[in-house]
Amino acid sequence: MAAIDPITSLYVHVPFCAHKCEYCAFFSEVSNGALMQRYTAALVRELELVASELRPQTIFFGGGTPSLLNLAQWETLFGAFDRLGLLGAAEWTIESNPATVSLDKATLWRAHGVNRVSMGVQSLDEQLLDRLGRVHSREMVFKSFDTLRAAGFDNINLDLMFAIPGQTPGIWQATLDETLALGSEHVSCYEVIYEEDTPLFEQLKAGEFDVDEDLACAMYEALLDRTAAAGFGQYEVANFARGQRGADGVPALACRHNINYWRGGSYHGLGPSAAAYVRGLRTKNWSNTQLYCEQLERGRRAIESTEQLPPLRRAGEMAAFGLRMNAGWPYALFQERTGFDLRLEWRGPMADLVERGWGEADAAGFHLTRQGLRFADAAAEMFLR
Ligand SMILES: C[S@@+](CC[C@H](N)C(=O)[O-])C[C@H]1O[C@@H](n2cnc3c(N)ncnc32)[C@H](O)[C@@H]1O
Ligand code: SF4
To answer: Which string of DSSP letters, residue by residue, matches 36-51?
Structure first.
């Protein structure tokens, strides 16, 4: 089976950060040298356990802050990828924080086939960076961007956030313009999500600020206008890339790894808290780095839960995810991937979305409109069964 049907997409979660940001609910903890070392060895062990069924075309090291691993730890990981015959992916992304990028590290990444770096910028306003609990200054963003270019990276993504408490339209537009002027190949811009159990959520609950929905809409409009004017093509609610659009409607420099998620493809996930979707089974690793290491030290996978969704429920999820993309779902592709006809099973929600001006159907497929993309989460809910 493995030889016939290898998994071509690999996610690796690195659960360490220099400091925990006020808004972030990703599984990560403030780094501790000994645990990072133990994690690196455990990750190599986990990679060995799944290597025979992997032939990665896209690899994504996310976090947490993968750039926090030191040079020796990266060398260990690259050595394992090499030994197991897993180098050579067409797209290999590493997420980084501007405070932890160095020329040595970036050069090492590039030398082993990493060809895309995603850097968390969030804002270029010093006060907001402080407010968000970021460990870097705006100057570090510019410096790290230059470092990545000097190391040979010609495919860089920059992450921004908008609708941050205290962010005025003027501050947002200045950040956006300065970021676009850097000339990266890709930008991801997320509206702030108030995640439970984060300090920002507690501040909201305590009434320290209000959420202004109209302001968030205006900021999203500015985002769409300015990215288009700067030559980026939007291909998902929060994602914009340079390059010609292909037959699939997606710009050439889009993140192929993430497109595989939105199109419901299979992927392996390694590291604490990582999810995987392999041969119809969804699994999730323990969100506990100690426990993760212990399990792998005993030679076992560190899987907390396994779930097989009923086909229609899985298809509903795939409909919801795919509609986050500007290209929406071509009916034929949806049927090929899920076995269901979008027009038959979801006739009601589709008609509802068209009536609200959020969706548009043509002979080939269904997609959300500019207005609908702003409310993609609400639209997605309508497809879940
Ligand atoms: C794992 S982080 C990126 C890399 C690195 N850890 C960093 O922050 O610099 C992924 C991205 O998710 C976004 N993000 C995280 N929490 C968010 C939230 N609560 N609301 C909106 N965006 C969020 C941020 O833009 C962040 O850059
Ligand atoms: S946003 Fe990035 S740096 Fe901040 S806590 Fe989350 S993963 Fe860590």
So the answer is: HHHHHHHHHHHHHHHG
| Global pTM value | 0.97
Determine the 3-state secondary structure of 354 from DSSP. helix
- Tokens for 233? 């093509």
Q: Identify the three-state secondary structure at position 329.
A: strand
Q: Are 285 and 294 in contact (CB under 8 A)?
A: no
**C-alpha of residue 264 to centroid of ligand 1, in Å:** 22
What is the per-residue pLDDT across 180-189, written as a single tens digit (0 to 9) for each? 999 999 999 9
| Ligand 2 atom 7, closest CA | 64
Give me the residue label for tokens 């030994």: 83
Please say whether the beta carbons of 61 and 76 come within 8 A: no
The 3-state DSSP class for residue 343 equals helix
Q: What is the C-alpha separation between 223 and 7, in angstroms, rounded?
A: 35
Query: What is the chain's alpha carbon radius of gyration, rounded to the nearest angstrom?
Result: 21
- For 255, the token pair is 């993140």
Distance 124 CA to ligand 1 centre (A): 15
Question: Directed axis angle between helix 169-181 and helix 213-229, to 10°?
Answer: 20
Minimum CA distance residue for ligand 2 atom 4:
21
